[in-house]
Amino acid sequence: MIKIFFTTTVVQFLTCFFVKPFRVDRIFFTCILPVNLITVTWDGIVSVLKSRRAIDIEESLIDHLGKRYNVTCGSYRKMLTKVNWFLISPVHIR
């Protein structure tokens, strides 16, 4: 959540001057009346708060799909990024 807060406030404020084409309304809504900063920050923080762990999603998938599919989950972590992955394959009945 700290990363989201930092990038949606400080970084957006610093980079708004370099976005092309330059428009006065962008500077106004970012610096004077920070509507852009507030809405993007709010959206990012709410998205982080409502995200679920990979194990919770796996349990939900197993409950929903039942015995017809095999569900495997894991996560891949590289530096500051974490990616959850899911493998869903049908069960072959012979």
What is the structure about, briefly put?
The protein has 94 residues and is an alpha+beta fold. The chain has helices spanning 2-15, 24-32, 35-50, 54-65, and strands at residues 69-78, 81-90. Helix content is 54%, strand content 21%.
Q: How does the SSE layout of this entry go?
A:
Layout: H1 2-15, H2 24-32, H3 35-50, H4 54-65, E1 69-78, E2 81-90
Number of helices: 4
**Strand fraction:** 15-25%
Spans with pLDDT under 50 lasting ≥5 residues? none
The SS-based structural class is: alpha+beta
Major sheet characteristics: 2 strands, antiparallel
Q: Using the CA coordinates, give the radius of gyration.
A: 20 Å
Order of helices and strands: HHHHEE
| Coarse shape | elongated
What is the number of independent domains?
Answer: 2
Specify the helix fraction band: 40-55%
What is the spatial order of strands in the main beta sheet?
Answer: 1-2
User: Quick one: how many beta strands?
Assistant: 2
Q: Overall mean pLDDT score?
A: 84
Distance between the termini: 48 Å
Quickly list its features.
21% strand, 94 residues, 54% helix, alpha+beta, 2 domains, two-stranded antiparallel sheet
